[in-house]
Design a protein that fits this description.
It contains 19 helices and 12 strands. The chain is of the alpha/beta class. The longest helix is centred in the first third of the chain and has 26 residues.
Length: 467
């Protein structure tokens, strides 16, 4: 932070001091003059330091710079090594910038990020979940660096709808790093053995679940140890039952979260399915990674989760092929798979290195080499148009990529609710769905809890407007 004394301002204040009426005893007048001078200097420092905050868009000097980058660890050691290689390439191209990359788990990052941003160990750049319940909370606390000038300078080609989802109070505060879709992975060999097709209706899905259960397999590899996975299952069922228009009413206008369709969505996925034995025993104690392992080992036939798992799947030495389908129609409903933004990259408001940090951000999201790696190696979908004609992509990933790479927004999709919902609503989802799964509350009571939480968030101005 630079401090610049305004000479003309200081001179005018000193002149005014000389006009102070003479007081009895020159020492008193001298003391007041010194106090006034100190006050003026402090005020001038504050005003000038505010005016001189670096906006990060001017050219960098050639001095050495340190950028602290906090991110989420990759799913496998191999992918983690690739992420480190990407940073090394950046440092080689920019020898005056030293990047200290720190990778931790998603749960740890969510727990510490606000404290870290307010400490002397604050990262300059960090990845984090988008939406009002995550990055929006940090923006409200004044912890995010505004990126409106950076968007103009770098001409980042982010889809407009995606840019709006990382904007708070009209100010772009982050850069979307990936797009995601929720659905159900399935073991193709199991489906072929029993003659199953990808289900289009709930009855067909339940038939598949009954057959695989009767043959000693777990129908769905679902674990809710961290509580957030339940929100993804809810997003799948409620998106189908409400449809996009109903979701928009509930999220952005006057819809209620205790409507019949919402209760039905909760009852189906958190009471009916576990009562039928479609999940592993003690589902609330099973970590997300262990649930995935049930699918990888062949013990579970299906795995309901998101496309962020594609990179991890690609690293597994699976003995079977994998397919992916959206949650099917429920009682004649439409099929509206949840989709939207994954995580994003954000700059800390208190960064001492805005220029170097923005240069790293630009490289990590938009450089040609990194974009190619994100697609071919990490199987992550960028939030801007990409020509993939010369890329070697797995068929499963390519089909998802083609679905999501739409510049006008995923208008045929629903929402991953926790990405667009406020923090207090997400907390009500996490705790309440675990209670429904354990039998400690009912779907009806949980729906009323969701309604109250969302209404309170709306009254406090914590909800998003429709992007």
């Amino acid at each position: 932070m630079r401090f610049v004394l305004s000479v003309s301002y200081l001179s005018s204040r000193l002149s005014a001091m000389l006009l102070l009426p003479k007081l009895a005893g020159s020492p008193m007048r001298e003391m007041l003059s010194i106090k006034a001078l100190v006050t003026i200097c402090i005020a001038t420092l504050i005003v000038s330091s505010t005016a001189c905050v670096d906006d990060g868009v001017e050219p960098m000097d050639q001095a050495n710079h340190l950028v602290r980058y906090l991110t989420v660890e990759q799913e496998t050691p191999e992918l983690e090594a690739l992420a480190e290689e990407s940073i090394e390439r950046f440092e080689k191209d920019n020898p005056n910038i030293d990047v200290r990359r720190e990778a931790i788990s998603t749960e740890d990052q969510r727990a510490i990020i606000r404290t870290r941003l307010g400490s002397n160990r604050s990262p300059d750049l960090f990845s984090f979940d988008t939406g009002p319940g995550f990055a929006g909370v940090l923006a409200e606390a004044g912890l995010l660096y505004p990126l409106d000038k950076a968007y103009r300078k770098f001409e980042w080609p982010v889809f407009e709808w995606a840019k709006q989802r990382v904007s708070f109070d009209g100010v772009p505060s982050g850069v979307p790093a990936s797009l995601e879709e929720l659905g159900v992975y399935y073991n193709k060999d199991v489906f072929d053995r029993f003659g199953f097709e990808e289900p289009q209706t709930l009855n067909q899905l339940e038939h598949i679940a009954e057959v695989v259960k009767s043959n000693g397999m777990i129908p769905f590899a679902f674990g809710n140890g961290e509580k957030w996975p339940a929100g993804h299952l809810f997003s799948m069922t409620v998106s189908n039952l409400l449809g996009l228009k109903g979701l928009d009413r509930a999220l952005f206008r006057v819809g209620q979260w205790d409507d019949t369709e919402v209760i039905q969505a909760i009852d189906l996925i958190f009471r009916r399915f576990p009562d039928k034995g479609y999940y592993p025993a003690n589902v609330n104690t099973i970590p997300y990674s262990d649930a995935n392992a049930l699918f990888y080992s062949g013990r579970a036939a299906m795995n309901p989760t998101g496309t962020w798992l594609l990179s991890e799947l690609d690293e597994q030495d699976l003995a079977f092929g994998v397919g992916f389908f959206p949650f099917p129609s429920i009682g004649g409903s439409g099929i509206t798979p949840p989709a939207g933004l994954g995580d994003g990259l954000f700059v800390a408001r208190n960064t001492d290195e805005p220029k170097a940090t923005l240069k790293l951000l630009d490289y990590l999201v938009f450089s040609e080499r990194v974009v190619r790696d994100e697609l071919e190696r990490f199987n992550e979908i960028p939030a801007f148009s990409v020509d993939t004609s010369d890329l070697v992509l797995p068929p499963l990933f390519k089909s998802v990529l083609n679905d999501l790479q739409v510049a006008d927004g995923p208008s045929t999709f629903g929402y991953n609710i926790d990405v667009v919902a406020p923090q207090r609503f997400n907390a009500a989802m996490s705790d309440g769905f675990a209670d429904v799964l354990s039998g400690d509350t009912s779907p009806e009571r949980q729906a009323r809890t969701l309604r109250a939480a969302y209404q309170e968030a709306r009254d406090q101005g914590e909800t998003l407007s429709k992007p």
